[in-house]
Structures are given as C-alpha cells and as structure tokens.
Amino acid sequence: MTDKVLGVILGGGQGSRLAPLTQTRSKPAVPIAGKYRLVDIPISNCLNSGIHRMFVLTQFNSASLNKHIKNTYHFSHFSSAFVDILAAEQTPDNPTWFQGTADAVRQTMHHLLNHEFEYVLILSGDQLYQMDFKDMVQAHIDSGVQISIATIPVNVKDAPDFGILKSNEQNIITSFIEKPKSNLEDWISDTGPEMQAEGRNYLASMGIYIFNKDLLIKIFAENAEEKDFGKEIIPRMLTEYDVLSYQYEGYWTDIGNISSFFEANLGLTDDIPKFNLFDSHHSIFTRARMLPPSKILGTTLDKTIIAEGCILQAKSIKHAVVGIRSRIGVGTEIESCYIMGSDKYQTLIEIEKEKGQKPLIGIGDNCKIVNAIIDKNSRIGDDVQIIGGSHLPDGDHALYTVKDGIVVVKKGAIIPNGTVIS
Fold first, then answer.
1. C-alpha closest to that of 5 among 122, 86, 127
2. Which of 34, 97, 107, 293 would disulfide-bridge 323, Cβ 3.0–4.6 Å?
3. Which UniProt keywords apply (predicted)?
4. pTM as predicted
5. 3-state secondary structure the chain
6. Can you give the pLDDT of all 422 residues of the chain as single tens digits?
7. Beta bridge partners of 218
C-alpha cells in the first residue's frame, strides 16, 4: 500500500515568527531536542510508516537543510528509497519563486511525475508529532475519496489559530472556515468522549493532505492562480468533491513561533513527555555524528536531556535541553533553557590562543541563565547573567532577541564577560 505513496515535505517560507533562529537557516533545519532537526520529524514518520520515497521542497536559507539531508538519509543501492531536495528553480515556464504551498508542489510536479505512484502525501516541515501514515492512507483508500485531510481536536482557546471544519457521520467534511474569530459555538464537533472530556471540541486541519495523483494533476491544470492549499485549494475542493477528515488524537504541535518551540523542547524533559523520544516503534532518525559520550563533573542535574559529546562542569542544570558538543563552565546555573550546542570542538591550541581575548565556544564560569534559548556556536563569557521572563519587553538586539519573555541568544553571538540581560 505505502509503495504507492510519494511523500512531499514543504520546507516553508521565511519563518519570520521563529526569528532569529531562522536568520541563517530554514524552519525545517532548526535544531530540536538537542540533536535533531525539525525536518527529521516528518521524514522519520514517513520511514516508520513504510513510505520510503520523499521530496523536500526548499527555498529560503536552504543550505544547511540541504547539507543535513545529504549527510543523513542514505539508502541501499538495491532499494528504491530516497529523500531528495527540490529547491525552487526559475525556468522559462516558471520565472518566479514558490508563491505558496500549492504553488511549490505545482512547480515541482514534473519531477514527481518521473516516479510511479498513486497518492501524494503532503506534509509540513515544522510540526512535532508521531503519526503512523499507514492508517491514514488505508482510510483514504477505503473511503473511496480523492482527498483526505488529517485533523486534530483542539480546544476553544486554540481554535482561532487553525482552519476549523465539520464532518458528517462518514467523516466527510461538510464545512470549513479559516481561523474563525467569532461564533465558535457553531463549529463544535462530536470529537468523541475522550477528546470532549478534555474540552477539545473543534476539528482543526493539521496541514497534512493525501491527494490522488490524477486529481492533483487536474487541480493544477484547472487553476494556476491558486497558490495555497489551506486558503484556496481545499475550500474549493470541499464544494466539488468528497473530502475525508482523518481524525488523529495523539500529540501534535505546530512549531510556529518562539514560544511554541521553547515549550515543545522543554516538554521533552517531563517524566512522561507527550512526544516520546524513547518509543522504538516511532524512532526519530537523524545524522550519525559518531560523537563521544558526554562528560559531567560535579553537576547537579534535574529534568534535563543531555545530547552526546558534551563537557559539563556546571553547578546545576534544571529543566533544560543540552545539545551536542555543549560546554558549560564551573559554577554556572542553568534553568528552563534550550542550549543548542555547537558544530565543532575547539582544539587545545585554539583554546590557548583565544584565552583572554574572547570567550570560548559554549558557556563560561559562574553564569546564571534562566528562560533562554542559546543558539549554536554562541560564546558566553564568565559571570554572565541572562534572566528571561515576563519582565522583559519584546525586542531585537544585536546579540539577542526577546520574545514572550524568552531570551534567544543568536547563532555565533559573543556575549562578553559580566554581561547582564535581565
């Protein structure tokens, strides 16, 4: 069944709401959980579901994403599996860049058609979830429809942020509204006893679609002006075709802004996290870096995830995610932080040469850092205090950005000794 499916993962636009993390990289390339990239999530979900042929459509700041995929996803020469990058390209027929989700698939359709398939599974590159697509594909085939949308029950607080729909007893979608701001009571659905008990009474689109190949070709041929699936194509299709709602009830979050990104990462430190990295049936794959195990000297740890290759001498680390190759100095206290780590180790010669001239890569001695994201390759000196919280106004500064009380130290930033951000 899944051999008939081609996966298409959308790389997203400029990702301005995730800035400054997307200042030099695309959204799917943003590091998550200390050792992965966001794009690893949809790719892993496909691989775990038996879908082994995927295209990743990219446009903005795609160099690091392309490098990650090239270095990560290798398959046997005797397998038809692949994860290929399709970057936006200007051609005589298409002189413009991707103008939206549908336009990205339309412009790359001629590459997709070089392969044998019956169904196209369209996914976002910036969502966190563990889903078996086999069940959705089977539901799509059994229902006889030509379009299916994955949906998830949400509560009244979250409903205005999503496309909300209603369906009949056969799970065929009967109506749809994009980000409703009023009359929400008209959009309450029967989501089942368990979901209703949690107050999740609204069906939201997850931005995950299955199209029959022939219909997708027909849609693109009919109207070249429609640029977006959620805003244009899906609403039109609801008036012309039966569209299936496939209800998913597991953990799912859209990594749309700094706050949701921060919460999703720190949520991984819970006793029983909603997103389970330790599930052998839903493994998350990423680049094998062959790093040494982490070394910890005199540090008190609590509710903390530590990736490989770290050297930690901190006084305490609490409620934090510590990424690959992180170095944290003596006496430093870390709380409620995501530290992304670094791309390389400094040699002893480099350390000796730079000592006293600028901070080393990592976090220095006797620092206190709370409610912060430390992007990769940052250099934080000794005696630095970074205390995020609601007392800090939003703002973008040369070395850091503040959003929703979260201090985001920019990639490669150099924070001098004794700096105070609070």
1. 122
2. 34
3. Nucleotidyltransferase, Transferase
4. 0.92
5. CHHHEEEEEECCCCCHHHCCCCCCCCHHHCEECCCEECCHHHHHHHHHCCCCEEEEEECCCCHHHHHHHHHHCCCCCCCCCEEEEEECCCCCCCCCCCCCHHHHHHHHHHHHCCCCCCEEEEEECCEEECCCHHHHHHHHHHHCCCEEEEEEEECCCCHHHCEEEEECCCCEEEEEEECCCCCHHHHCCCCCHHHHHCCCCEEEEEEEEEEEHHHHHHHHHHCCCCCCHHHHHHHHHHHHCCEEEEECCCCEEECCCHHHHHHHHHHHHCCCCCCCCCCHHHCCCCCCCCCCCCEECCCEEEEEEECCCCEECCCEEEEEEECCCCEECCCCEEEEEEECCCCCCCCHHHHHHHCCCCCCCEECCCCEEEEEEECCCCEECCCCEEECCCCCCCEECCCEEEECCEEEECCCCEECCCCEEC
6. 678 999 999 887 666 888 999 988 888 899 999 999 999 999 999 999 999 999 998 877 778 888 899 999 999 888 889 998 887 766 666 666 666 788 888 888 888 999 999 999 999 988 999 999 999 999 999 999 999 999 999 999 889 988 899 999 899 999 988 888 888 888 999 889 999 999 999 999 999 999 999 999 999 888 777 778 877 888 888 888 999 999 998 999 988 899 999 999 999 999 999 999 998 888 999 999 999 999 999 999 999 999 999 999 999 999 999 999 999 999 999 999 999 999 999 999 998 888 888 999 999 999 999 999 999 999 999 999 999 999 999 999 999 999 999 999 999 999 999 999 99
7. none
Exposed, middle or buried by CB within 10 Å (0-12, 13-18, 19+), for 150?
A: buried
Identify the burial level of 342 via C-beta atoms within 10 angstroms of its C-beta, where 0-12 means exposed, 13-18 middle and 19 or more buried: buried
Name the residue among 340, 198, 206 with its Cα closest to residue 265: 340
CA–CA separation, 397 vs 210, rounded Å? 42
Helix axes 101-112 and 213-222, enclosed angle (nearest 10): 120
Amino acid at 73: Y
Q: Which of 304, 332, 325, 299 is nearest to 415 (CA)?
A: 332
Say if residues 330 and 312 touch (Cβ distance below 8 Å).
no
Nearest of 255, 346, 216 to residue 33 by alpha carbon: 255
Q: How far apart are CA 44 and CA 267, in angstroms?
A: 20
User: What is the amino acid identity at position 392?
Assistant: L
Q: Taking the mean position of all CA atoms in its chain, how far away is CA 24?
A: 16
